[in-house]
């Protein structure tokens, strides 16, 4: 019985051959045979070696014959047809894999010609790396080249941890294998590339985004792991009850815009998808434009951006407006054109959800102004702005409370309910409980998992004049008058409860430590 990995590998070989105008003829024991019209380049042969773990044998065929076979879409040629009988055809064998590689290739197992299990070292390394990363709850995997070869690091709860250093013999195979998995151009090493592929560990399905970047010693590759099954409900986002109620209230509006802001890796995508899940009903037509589609959602029409063919956010948005949508999700507002179309959609009977890369809710207003959106348009369209960050949670098994409280000076945007201080003390120094990360066999670092802190800004009519004047002082005064919790004060609430540490809040929000 041919296993799934073997079938996947053979499919990848065929796809790779088609990309390089080659014909996959056959694969047996230790030899992979292909046909080309001329000597293939080394990148192509190297990729075939690492995919299959076999010696690559190349037949030279006339160009007309290659084109004929490709036209017929017959990528597997019977053995009797591949033998050279024409003087124009010559056969030669690409040199055997070097001895070092053969040493690392001892995991190849062959039962017989029709039933073989092939697991090359590179395939085994990448599969195990992804599996281990998922088990360790990693969000990203970094393959980083250096003079000594690749180093692999994974990001767990926002912090990078070193995993392993593969042998130098895998330097070429690691980027080649990852590019093939994401259907990227393996021959292109000078330009950054982005892609995506699906991964299944027999329990859950994952969408994995890939990004390549040329560096001094080779291509750096980062994988972003997205769980396509486990989705958080709005109640699981960690929102305080008043903010959760306000968000649900705005999500039920027939039109308008809700913006989620923050830097890369702050959880904006999870928040947006949770909102979409909350809104997902058969009576609603929900459409999204994303770059790329990170998590497939049933019942939602998701369209990926494809810049290679000119299919950008603005172009898709114009098309979506002719698709009778009720709710539109725009993955990110990046330019003036996308901002203007999104605003017009929010003014004409559509609820629009989107993100911006800004540090706070007030910065979002300035960013919209810089994108050419007037203050009047912003106040009439935008209903709610949410800024957020992810902070590491203290391990409940080993956290320790400090006997001496910590004094917090001159905090604004806090309330008596949030950190148990009186309104008169908001602008004065006050103390809160301090918790410390210790580390145990459960967490190994003192932290386990992450949660979000939020800053909400409800757009009200009184903001219109301040926006039209572009007065940061007026905006700040109006923000304070709403008694909104800032990211910092929201973090202090979690620190007081022992959910995270003060050090983590200072680091994430950028406030200076006391």
Automatic annotation (TrEMBL):
Q: Which residues form the Bacterial type II secretion system protein E domain?
A: 321-335
| Family annotation (SMART domains) | AAA
Keywords, ordered alphabetically: ATP-binding, Nucleotide-binding
Question: What is the official name of this protein in its record?
Answer: Bacterial type II secretion system protein E domain-containing protein
Provide the species name: Xenorhabdus ishibashii
Pfam families in UniProt? T2SSE (PF00437)
Q: State the organism's lineage.
A: Bacteria, Pseudomonadati, Pseudomonadota, Gammaproteobacteria, Enterobacterales
* Signal peptide range in chain numbering: none
- NCBIfam families named among the record's database cross-references: PRK10436.1
Origin: domain of life = Bacteria
Molecular function (GO) terms for this protein are: ATP binding; ATP hydrolysis activity
InterPro entries the record matches: AAA+_ATPase, P-loop_NTPase, T2SS/T4SS_dom
- Record bears the keyword Nucleotide-binding: yes
Q: What is one GO cellular-component annotation here?
A: plasma membrane
